[in-house]
Amino acid sequence: MGNNHSSSKNAAEYEELDLSHFRMHQVIGKGGFGLVRIVEVKTTKQQYALKYINKRQCIKKDSMENVFRERLMMQELDHPFIINLRFAFQDDEYMFIGLDLALGGDLRFHILRQAGLTEQTIKVYSAEISLALSYIHSKHIIHRDLKPENLLIDLDGHVRITDFNVAYSTKVKFPSSRSGTMNYMAPEMFSGKRYTYAVDWWALGVVMFESFYGIKPFRGDDDRQVVHQIKSGELHFPKDYGIRGTTKPDSSNLFKDIMYSLMTTTPTKRLGGESMDAFSNGISTHEWFGDIDWPSVYERKVFPDFIPDMSKSNFEAAPALEELLYDSSPLTPKRRKKKTITDNSVVLNRDSLAASLSASLTSSPSTSHNSPNMSNMSDKEKQKEQERRQMAFIETHFTVYVQGSGIGVLDTTTLNRLAIQNSMHKLNLDESRAFSSARYLSPLAQGNGDERQTLSASASTSSKGFSCESPKASLAIPIKASLISAKLFENKAPSRLVSENPFHKRPTISPSKSDLGEFK
């Protein structure tokens, strides 16, 4: 009876997670509707990247559905080479999304700074990206925007995929729209026909080429020329490719071969083909990866020969300067005034998102006593009412989220998971690197020894490849702000998370999935 009583409490009885739980640090990036800054949990010194999205700007740009879709999609992902979603909440002005922090900056920054990367570094990065893409595809998702700006480098020099804003769920059908960044789009994305997971492998080939040579393989004076170059698929490996006058050894023949194989214009002939098993069907077995120990790569035991200097900033200064000059409303902790009572028995997911949003915007007095009839309104009044309804939708549905759980619900491993955020960093960090700058002090420096813990890991292996799925069983537990701050973020020695390791033979438990639908 006690459990039933506690689980039936109204969500309004729980004090929500808010900015007061964090210390604000420097801005490190800019999104479409706000900035990204480093934040630190006050109780543990744990650091995250906090992305904050202005609600009204998001509504005006008709992008609210995209924001919700990206969040709902990321709630299903957890991988060592992805920037994972860790928590989410809102106040009256912003939606906040807490992500893994990668202090090494993005790949674009280092391609330019290092005058191109070495082949060995690119090989390690490509192996890590390949594992992440294979995992993403196993979830029936195409990323569609793989590029250097969306590949972040963490404390140990490992690469992580970020930005799922234009990602697409293939559960029901494959996409046909042009989406992504033109220079990295595969030729079939310009055909108007449906395309497959192979577009992400094409983009990986483009990233490999640019990382080494410092220039994009398909270029032109305008978009029309770029598209023509992409469709032709003609690859030319430059002989004089030094950036800023530098030179380095040419790429190996095997490196050129895998780039050719990935940037083949016919998807069915592309390395790995069009299936979600492309990693096992050709990528991982290519001779260029012949010296790669894939299980060790997954466990983050293989390191590139380049690791960013954490004593220096690895981010562009422009976003921070922009905040200083133009932000009239600095980010400060404030309690929500418009807190909406929500029904926790109704779970918003990728399948129900479009229908729920549509219903909230088109409801009439007969279906909702809070929504006035818009048929007799002027255009200006209709626009204002639509904005009000969208704000109400955000207030109702952008609920507090902590590592896979909504307010009032914790899965059985959340308490452990939240105590070891970013724990995929190797635990025997070189002290000089971990403490190289107090400004960039790693929270993992609190670790002691090589303690390991396996959390909700499941995988199956076969001759055709592997599938990775996480059990989503959850336990209903009331959660208050005191629990969030004192328990979820309590100061524990971080453990290595080996969640969903495809090289660990365990039973596969498949959660239900739903179609994300195509982005506008």
TrEMBL record:
<keyword id="KW-0067">ATP-binding</keyword>
<feature type="domain" description="Protein kinase">
    <location>
        <begin position="22"/>
        <end position="289"/>
    </location>
</feature>
<dbReference type="InterPro" id="IPR000719">
    <property type="entry name" value="Prot_kinase_dom"/>
</dbReference>
<keyword id="KW-0547">Nucleotide-binding</keyword>
<dbReference type="InterPro" id="IPR017441">
    <property type="entry name" value="Protein_kinase_ATP_BS"/>
</dbReference>
<protein>
    <recommendedName>
        <fullName>non-specific serine/threonine protein kinase</fullName>
        <ecNumber>2.7.11.1</ecNumber>
    </recommendedName>
</protein>
<dbReference type="InterPro" id="IPR050236">
    <property type="entry name" value="Ser_Thr_kinase_AGC"/>
</dbReference>
<feature type="region of interest" description="Disordered">
    <location>
        <begin position="496"/>
        <end position="520"/>
    </location>
</feature>
<dbReference type="InterPro" id="IPR008271">
    <property type="entry name" value="Ser/Thr_kinase_AS"/>
</dbReference>
<feature type="compositionally biased region" description="Basic and acidic residues">
    <location>
        <begin position="378"/>
        <end position="387"/>
    </location>
</feature>
<keyword id="KW-0723">Serine/threonine-protein kinase</keyword>
<feature type="binding site">
    <location>
        <position position="61"/>
    </location>
    <ligand>
        <name>ATP</name>
    </ligand>
</feature>
<dbReference type="GO" id="GO:0035556">
    <property type="term" value="P:intracellular signal transduction"/>
</dbReference>
<feature type="region of interest" description="Disordered">
    <location>
        <begin position="358"/>
        <end position="387"/>
    </location>
</feature>
<keyword id="KW-0418">Kinase</keyword>
<keyword id="KW-0808">Transferase</keyword>
<dbReference type="Pfam" id="PF00069">
    <property type="entry name" value="Pkinase"/>
</dbReference>
<dbReference type="InterPro" id="IPR011009">
    <property type="entry name" value="Kinase-like_dom_sf"/>
</dbReference>
<feature type="compositionally biased region" description="Low complexity">
    <location>
        <begin position="358"/>
        <end position="377"/>
    </location>
</feature>
<dbReference type="GO" id="GO:0005524">
    <property type="term" value="F:ATP binding"/>
</dbReference>
<dbReference type="GO" id="GO:0004674">
    <property type="term" value="F:protein serine/threonine kinase activity"/>
</dbReference>
